[in-house]
Amino acid sequence: MATAAAAQATELTGILTQVDGAVQLAGSGVREAPLAAPWQVIRSGVTVRLPEATSAGIVCSNRRFIRLQGPVSWS
Fold it and tell me: For 11, what's the count of Cα atoms within 13 Å in the CB-facing half-sphere?
């Protein structure tokens, strides 16, 4: 069990904890409707795109919190 949990933790790059507006996700593993939602997992290779007047909060796998405000793109 501990090994499986460790493997999942290394794959995780971030979790969206706050989404305000039409924040978009792009990259491998993103489905057809790429709008972000709270508690969504962001894996390696995904870009978060924030248009004007949008914002997002992300808790990274290194336990750091990042607050983004659009317009910006973050990988």
Answer: 7
